[in-house]
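From the methods appendix. Each design record in this collection lists the tokenized structure first, followed by the designed amino acid sequence. Records were kept in a plain field format so they could be parsed without special tools. The example shown here is representative of the layout used throughout.

RECORD:
FOLD TOKENS (178 positions):
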């Protein structure tokens, strides 16, 4: 491992403690998750402090649609968990973190290898922690672009993430129930 990114996620997990230990097995196995295997999705690297994940979707004969491009569902799937992972791993087990909503805008046909970079700064994570501690709960918006191998943006992803401090007894779930 050199520099700020861990090119071998398994090396990092085996040699360092994660902020939220319940996710160790999940991150270790994410590249073996059957839907990701079938879609050709894999985490290629992540930052040591779990503020950034790089994910790629490779084109294979078995994951192309009728038009020879990536399925829209595969583009969304490569984006789905990573903002929640970043918030959860950095805030720890004293917070409840859920996806609340998501949108994806397909801008161009996605061909070849697609790269998604999902990142939240440490300062933004500290703002989320402080606001959640003060208000008890809130939702946060994050965005990422999916880029093909020549640098063209093929999709734009927006995620809304719900965060609640477990110490807040008055906060409700993201869907209204207490």
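DESIGN:
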């Amino acid at each position: 491992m050199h520099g700020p990114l861990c090119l071998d996620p398994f090396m990092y997990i085996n040699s360092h403690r994660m902020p939220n230990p319940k996710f160790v097995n999940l991150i270790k196995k994410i590249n073996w998750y059957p839907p990701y295997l079938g879609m050709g999705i894999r985490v290629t690297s992540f930052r040591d402090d779990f503020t950034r994940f790089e994910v790629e979707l490779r084109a294979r004969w078995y994951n192309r649609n009728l038009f020879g491009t990536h399925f829209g569902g595969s583009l969304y799937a490569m984006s789905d968990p990573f903002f929640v992972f970043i918030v959860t791993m950095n805030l720890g087990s004293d917070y409840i973190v859920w996806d609340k909503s998501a949108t994806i805008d397909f801008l161009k046909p996605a061909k070849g290898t697609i790269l998604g970079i999902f990142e939240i700064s440490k300062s933004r994570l500290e703002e989320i922690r402080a606001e959640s501690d003060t208000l008890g709960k809130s939702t946060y918006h994050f965005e990422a672009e999916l880029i093909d191998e020549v640098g063209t943006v093929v999709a734009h992803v927006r995620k809304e993430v719900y965060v609640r401090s477990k110490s807040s007894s008055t906060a409700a779930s993201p869907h209204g129930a207490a």
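APPENDIX NOTE: Residues 1-18 have pLDDT under 50 and may be disordered.
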